[in-house]
Design brief:
Helix content is 35%, strand content 16%. The protein has helices at 17-26, 62-72, 79-99, 133-147, 215-222, 253-256, 281-293, 303-306, 310-313, 315-323, 380-397, 426-436, 443-463, 467-481, 507-528, and strands spanning 3-4, 10-13, 31-34, 52-53, 105-106, 111-112, 114-115, 125-126, 151-154, 158-164, 170-176, 185-188, 191-194, 227-228, 233-240, 260-263, 298-301, 333-342, 345-347, 359-361, 366-367, 504-505.
């Protein structure tokens, strides 16, 4: 095994807004940024159409933004975290502008244009190039990172495991790439930051890159980290039905500008629901899903509110639609819910530290306490930017603690082995997640999913890595344990709310639950025999 040695280095895994912002905030501390593909490709950030939420208007205040965040979070958002993040929003926007980001402005005084999105009580969404905010921000940060002498960017490097020292602390990563051969290279660092994104690629209907399969969650789980609220998966209500995978997104900002939802008969079915088309995402997604289950097609009609102006205000959506043979100026846009954002993740504290020494997490892979059971629109990029700065401060203030001679090993947990190339059929996982761990759930389906995913992890033990099966097992297990309906987690067999509590789980605990369920399901068969 080859080893590269740290010189006060921080290792960051992931090249979206969370990883890049953290790397830039750490300057001049040396950073090695490991990216599984060419930088800028296969990240979720460029798909973010909505924007960044910040209380910048004269009629707005961070306390109002925090209140909206808590309301959307359905009782599980941390009030202290919401207050802290929303207070940081102005400085996050200013930092991006200092990096070179150009946000949309209007008027002789070039004031920032503030948009409205669902469940926000004020216009507070900052955009760049209309609905291309994520893409433009990512381009800005990539350029800044490539110009930073403190940042070493290593592309096409897949991290296979975290490296643990003799005390169980994370002290680096094992990775493979085009120049490493079959044997992983050990990259040491004083700290490791996971910024690997979400899990949408595990679902058959998703707006995420198909590479978003929860790799960071699997890395942390095998190292023994506590994971929190994995059952909360946000389904964007209006993914465009265009026979594309991943599904293109019709941004929520369209509804903010007055677009309405109608079924195949032209009936507007959201108007009697509080908030109508601008109700929280989970409400809109469930209402659309109910129409689809009843055999109806669902459409987003932008024509009355926007007409031909959609081509100027939303050039990205217009291009996506026309590329799929849909003209939004002339036709309503066919839509359906699709996996979009994971509120759960690696449990971290106010500085982004996980439960494992030496390991931090930033962005969608982390559970900070901001989003609770249902993320408020356009809070994700804000959260990543705010925590990037706090993680950098925390790491800079911590002492380097890794002797080069200290024993290092990859974490290996019961029943699951990492290493090698994926060999299982991802279509099995994606269809199982859609069917049993989707918009609506129930015990029988979750038990079936847990048993199936557990069996796939057993196969992976013999044939190689299958992080997707492991992460799907963790999510299904967390969903099975939450016997209530709250936010983005809806149980047909448990429609009511229970007292507020988080779901915390480790890999060992999930595997024990899966074994118990497998034994319970096998018992009736043994009795019949």
């Amino acid at each position: 095994m080859r080893t590269t040695h740290p010189h006060d280095r921080v290792v960051i895994v992931g090249g979206g807004i969370a990883g890049l912002a953290t790397a830039l905030q750490l300057a001049p501390l040396p950073v090695t940024l490991l990216v599984a593909s060419p930088l800028g490709q296969h990240a979720s950030t460029p798909l973010a159409q909505g924007g960044i939420a910040a209380a910048l208007g004269d009629d707005d205040h961070p306390a109002l933004h925090a209140a909206d965040t808590l309301q959307a979070g359905a009782g599980l958002s941390d009030p202290d975290v919401a207050a802290r993040v929303t207070e940081a929003a102005t400085s996050c926007i200013e930092w991006l502008i200092a990096q070179g980001a150009g946000f949309d402005r209007a008027g002789s005084d070039a004031q920032l244009i503030l948009g409205l999105e669902a469940a926000h009580s004020r216009r507070r969404i900052v955009h760049a190039d209309g609905d291309r905010t994520g893409k433009r921000v990512l381009e800005t940060l990539i350029q800044a990172a490539r110009s930073a002498p403190s940042i070493q960017i290593m592309e096409n490097r897949r991290v296979t495991n975290l490296a643990l020292d003799a005390n169980g602390a994370v002290a680096g990563v094992f990775c493979v790439g085009p120049d490493t051969g079959a044997e992983p290279v050990l990259v040491l660092g004083r700290a490791v930051v996971l910024a690997t994104g979400g899990i949408g690629g595990l679902y058959a209907h998703t707006t995420n890159p198909l590479s978003a399969q929860g790799g960071g969650l699997a890395l942390a789980a095998r190292a023994g980290a506590v994971l929190r609220d994995l059952e909360f998966v946000q389904f964007h209500p209006t993914a465009i039905v265009a026979d594309l995978d991943p599904m293109p997104l019709a941004t929520e900002a369209l509804r903010g500008e007055g677009a309405v939802l109608v079924n195949g008969r032209g009936e507007r079915f959201m108007q009697d629901i509080p908030g109508a088309e601008l109700a929280p995402r989970d409400v809109v997604a469930r209402t659309i899903f109910a129409q689809i289950r009843a055999g109806e097609g669902v459409y987003l009609d932008t024509r009355p509110a926007l007409g031909e102006h959609i081509t100027r205000k939303f050039p990205g959506v217009t291009a996506l639609c026309r590329g799929a043979g849909i003209d939004p100026v002339r036709d309503p846009i066919p839509v359906r819910p699709a996996a979009h954002y994971h509120m759960g993740g690696i449990k971290v504290d106010h500085q982004g530290r996980s439960s494992v020494d030496g390991l931090w997490a930033c962005g969608e892979v982390a559970s900070t306490g901001l989003h609770g059971a249902n993320r408020l629109a356009s809070n994700s990029l804000l959260e990543a930017l705010a925590y990037a700065a706090w993680i950098a401060d925390d790491i800079e203030g911590s002492a380097s603690r890794l002797p080069a001679s200290q024993p290092l090993s990859p974490p290996v947990r019961r029943q699951y082995k990492s290493g090698g190339q994926p060999s299982l059929d991802l279509r099995q996982i994606r269809s199982g997640m859609d069917r049993h761990v989707g918009v609506l759930r129930e015990a029988a389906g979750l038990q079936q999913a847990i048993r199936h995913f557990n069996a796939l992890t057993q196969e992976a033990h013999a044939t190689g890595e299958r992080d997707g099966a492991l992460v799907s097992l963790l999510i299904a297990t967390a969903a099975y344990r939450r016997n209530e309906s709250r936010g983005a987690h809806q149980r047909l067999d448990h429609p009511h709310l229970m007292p507020e509590q988080h779901t915390e789980i480790t890999l060992d605990r999930a595997l024990r639950i899966a074994a118990e369920i497998a034994n319970e399901m096998a018992a009736p068969a043994r009795r019949v025999a």
